[in-house]
Amino acid sequence: MRTISTHPATSRGFTLLELLIGLSLLGFILALLFGGFRLASTTGDAVEGKLSELAYEQGGLGLIRRLFDSAQPIYWTQAQRRILLFHGEQDVVTFAAPLTELSGLRIVQLALEPDSGMKNSPHNRLVLRYGAIPYGAPTFDGTLAASSIHTVLGDIRSATFEFLGSIAPDKPVEWQSQWLKQSKLPLLIRIRVLRSDAEQLDITIAPAVKAEDVTGIRITAGPQL
Could you tell me the residue range of the domain that residue 162 belongs to? Predict the structure, then answer.
């Protein structure tokens, strides 16, 4: 006759050491997973921020290129002397150009200024000012004194303008650091931008008005002075 035991079968459980090891492994795996998620999120935010920065920068550079490309020679006459509305220095350029394809000519100024939004920082910004051409005034000086300021390129170290042309009939065509009191527009305009990360961007633009046609253009949007 087979004897049937009435004692319940006992099952072996986990020891405290095994539980601690299991919990440690689980914590390690979770730390790796959340670390990877956080790294992916940070990387994604950094890439998105960089793309936004590049898009903003390309938009500003595109505006600069379009303004210089559409620059027009506008003249004032003072004491039998024609004065060209183009004042170019290394850190500021003032000229006449349409802001958009459908707008009329405006006095436009691009200037390098300290970035007031970044305290205790040597960084600068390239700003845009514009205003109506004062056809009835004896000069265009002071026209932009009360105009609003628009940032074209921000968080840059420097921006330098250069102008290709001959400053006198007996002078060769070469790059100039200034273009003042000339009778025609420069052949080329170059801007060198030093970004905050020390990367340099060089842009060279040729005004759409051809050099041989520059001296023949007169004011057409208003009375000639």
Answer: 57-214
The span from the CA of 186 to the CA of 163, in Å, is 6
User: Is there a domain that residue 95 lies in?
Assistant: yes
Is the distance from CB of 137 to CB of 222 less than 8 angstroms?
Answer: no
Cα distances (angstroms) measured from residue 21 to each of 13, 18, 29, 30, 109: 15, 5, 12, 14, 70
CB 213, CB 125: distance < 8 Å: no
pTM of the predicted model as reported, rounded to 2 decimal places? 0.69
Structure tokens at 141: 């000086």
pLDDT bucket at 215, cuts 50 / 70 / 90:
very low
Residue 23 lies in a domain: no
203 within a domain of the structure (yes/no) = yes
Give residue-wise pLDDT tens across range 95-128: 999 987 767 889 999 999 998 765 555 689 999 9
Number of domains in the chain: 1
Amino acid letter at 174?
E
The string over 48-86, giving b where at least 16 C-beta atoms fall within 10 Å of a residue's C-beta and e elsewhere, is eeeeeeeeebeebbebbeebbebbbbbbbeeeeeebbbb
Contact 170, 143 (CB under 8 A): no
